[in-house]
Automatic annotation (TrEMBL):
PROSITE patterns, sorted: 2FE2S_FER_1, 2FE2S_FER_2, FAD_FR
Natural source organism: Prauserella marina
CDD domains attached to this UniProt entry: fer2, PA_degradation_oxidoreductase_like
UniProt name for this protein: 3-ketosteroid 9alpha-monooxygenase subunit B
An example molecular function term from Gene Ontology annotations: 2 iron, 2 sulfur cluster binding
Record-linked InterPro entries: 2Fe-2S_ferredoxin-like_sf (IPR036010), 2Fe-2S_ferredoxin-type (IPR001041), 2Fe2S_fd_BS (IPR006058), Beta-grasp_dom_sf (IPR012675), Cbr1-like_FAD-bd_dom (IPR008333), FAD-bd_FR_type (IPR017927), Flavoprot_Pyr_Nucl_cyt_Rdtase (IPR001709), FNR_nucleotide-bd (IPR039261)
Length: 339
């Protein structure tokens, strides 16, 4: 079984963004895409550890050091804010996630609320520095004191007039944004690809707004923050659904990843992600528990069943999206794509 590919990153500095949020800046180079996240190992106080996912707010196109931004909201986030300083080291998994634009030249419509600005800012920085696209950002917060990156966004908008327009929505002034209000803000930009990140009620309102405007599912991307129940840093052999012998039936799998196509025999009791990694195929993953979307792929033919799913909704599944870490084959032939 392929072992967890963890990295140890030294911390260059910790920047206080608000009274409840900080950015951890690493003295390291990372190969990542805008909108991706890092899975961080955090000590649990009993000699063990837990894993938490934090989005990168930096951009791989600006030359800045990579950084994750953390808002206090539970044990892991509080531990980072209270204990990590310049000179600390954090063990992380390689950058992962699919909340990333396919092109930096396209015009984008972005919705963020609270700490959901973190991966969205990475996308904003990347499009402005490495592409030609224009951006309309709707950013919701409780009040003006809770706006993370308010100064950064103002400076970016001033430096790129006409390419970045930011609309701030403050609950203390305007109340919680409704689907109808978000629809009105989005209506002039229906041709744009959409990215949504924030608390579930906000994301629900924004996705409802997109449906009312007739946006196809493929043009609307969401990023959901969850707390991992399992620990991907534990490298024991994952449990299989069954233990197939040499004569156990197999399906035929065809997979498209990074421009390459592979054909493999897929034993009925093996999870898709395990099969790919065991065959040297560098498929994306993070939690391996069905609690994040890092390993998401699309079924283009055939059928699979998922053993566990905490992140995909019914529309994702209807669109053929599955989690590779939890998928077993049901048909004799299955084709999947990561493209």
């Amino acid at each position: 079984m392929t072992e967890t590919r963890s990295l140890v990153l030294p911390v260059a500095e910790v920047v206080e963004e608000t009274s409840q949020a900080c950015s951890v800046v690493f003295d390291a180079e990372l190969d990542y895409r805008p909108g991706q996240f890092l899975t961080v190992r955090i000590p649990d106080g009993d000699g063990g550890s837990v894993a938490r996912c934090y989005s990168l707010s930096s951009s791989p196109h600006t030359g800045q050091r990579p950084q994750v931004t953390v808002k206090r909201d539970g044990y892991g986030s509080n531990w980072i804010c209270d204990n990590v300083t310049s000179g600390s080291e954090l063990e992380v998994l390689p950058p992962s996630g699919v909340f990333t634009p396919s092109s930096l030249t396209s015009d984008l419509l972005l919705f963020a609320a609270g700490s959901g600005i973190t991966p969205v800012l990475s996308i904003v920085r990347s499009v402005l520095a490495g592409g030609t696209g224009t951006i309309r950002l709707v950013y919701a917060n409780r009040d003006e004191h809770s706006v993370i990156f308010s100064g950064v966004l103002r400076e970016l908008a001033e430096a790129h007039p006409g390419r970045l327009v930011v609309t701030h929505w403050l609950e203390s002034v305007q109340g919680l944004p409704s689907a109808e209000q978000l629809t009105a803000l989005a209506a002039p930009h229906t041709e744009r690809e959409v990215f949504i990140c924030g608390p579930r009620p906000f994301m629900s309102a924004a996705t409802t707004a997109m449906k009312s405007l007739g946006k196809p599912r493929s043009a609307v991307h969401t990023e959901k923050f969850v707390s991992l129940g399992g620990n991907p840093f534990d490298t024991g052999t994952p449990k299989r659904e069954d233990e197939p012998g040499q004569d156990s039936p197999s399906s035929t799998l065809e997979v498209s990843l990074d421009g390459s196509r592979h054909e493999l025999a897929w034993p009925r009791g093996n999870k898709l992600l395990d099969l790919l990694l065991d065959n040297g195929i560098d498929a994306p993953y993070s939690c391996r528990e069905g609690q994040c979307s890092a390993c998401a792929c699309r079924i283009t033919s055939g059928e699979v069943k998922m053993l566990h799913n905490d992140v995909l909704d019914s529309e994702d599944i209807a669109d053929g999206i599955v989690l590779a870490c939890q998928s077993l084959p049901l048909t004799d032939e299955v084709s999947i794509s990561y493209e």
